[in-house]
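notes to self, project folder thing:

trying the whole complex as one job this time. last attempt i did each chain seperately and stitching them together was a nightmare. two parts in total, labels are on each line so i dont mix them up again. if this works i'll redo the older ones the same way
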Amino acid sequence: MKVMLVEEREVKAFLEQLQQEGLLTEQTRPVWEMILPKRLKRMYDVLNERTRYITVLMEAVDDPHNQAAVLRTAEAFGVQDVHIVTGKAPFSPNRLVTRYADQWLTLHRKPDIETAIGDLKRQGYQVYASYLGEGAIPLSDLNVSKPTVLLFGNEHSGVSEEALSLADGTFIIPMYGFVQSFNISVAAALALYDVTERARRQAGTRYYLPPEERKALYEQWMWQTLHPRIRKQLEQQGYTVR
Amino acid sequence: MKVMLVEEREVKAFLEQLQQEGLLTEQTRPVWEMILPKRLKRMYDVLNERTRYITVLMEAVDDPHNQAAVLRTAEAFGVQDVHIVTGKAPFSPNRLVTRYADQWLTLHRKPDIETAIGDLKRQGYQVYASYLGEGAIPLSDLNVSKPTVLLFGNEHSGVSEEALSLADGTFIIPMYGFVQSFNISVAAALALYDVTERARRQAGTRYYLPPEERKALYEQWMWQTLHPRIRKQLEQQGYTVR
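result (full assembly):
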């Protein structure tokens, strides 16, 4: 799968494959013809690792640095969706930290934690909150046999009482020293790493995106990877993405 | 083991146990009599999880924030030793980030990477460098059947050529997205978490400190947990810690 697209016939075969998979269509031809094959290939490789089986919910994470670090880590581990309930501060992740990770993600802003958790539960997710108190299970015991939301709370006060009462459970990253807590960017990275590694092995095809979501996401990525001038040109020709 | 020292007889039994283990002696009585039993208990619990089986070497990590974050994570996972080779910047970890983790660690400053790696290899360690290039094995494949050094390089240029040529191997934290690298504080946390979790299960008693090292470290911790005024008093009475 990880072929380099050096020779023209490799490029041709690759484009044909993507057409067969329905990722490139005649309708979107004006778009994908403007994108370098190696770019299409890179986006395809990333698409193949994308998941909605694991997702993240940030509740009142106020520090722009932390907001950004969570987005960057989620993206790096292939987690497509990040759900956001703001606290005192607006959601404005630091661009120096995200390294544009956010442009490849689907961000879902929710008005409040009740709506956020309710929506996710209706979609079949279990919700586990990062929590340092009583009853939290060790991260490695978090069962990933069903789609899972990792919930992270405010830097100082943690997840809210309301979130705790709505969540299916809480987890803790075991610590063995005098230091009793991790920065949220570290906690999120550890949790996402552990949970995605295990879910990738256990969940089989359920871990990855279904065909129609693959297609929608790939088209969106193609559109936004275009130079703004080319996007504008295509729009003037009456082309819009979805 | 995790009893609360509520009742006087529990305290007495605990202190007797530590004397039997050789952690509290008649010689150090003036010190430990000045420390609250629950404090002694906390230090004892942490001591029991301490390891030198896994250790960290930072090569030219220049950012005070990153220096501090690595110390804090190492401490949180029970890793006692951190080895340091400075780069362009001095080693001056940000105190707001370390949360005083460094005072519980043993920091080893080394003049250059050759000395640092040479010393560690002579002590029986294998050295694995965090590296994004060719030949790096996935973190989860890093074999922890022998004592292991995790080596992290400079924020921008990574580990040096010299370090790479001296290391036993390189590892990479698998990434699945467009983001191609982690901040070193995140990379170190992920690597330390994964490796200590596995080594704790696999290495048995070799993972933990031997009796003489436990005693030395406990005495050092007792000494520094004292109020400076009490330390001074004891010193005036002719008492010094080792």
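what i see at first glance: The radius of gyration of chain B is 20 Å.
need to look closer tmrw
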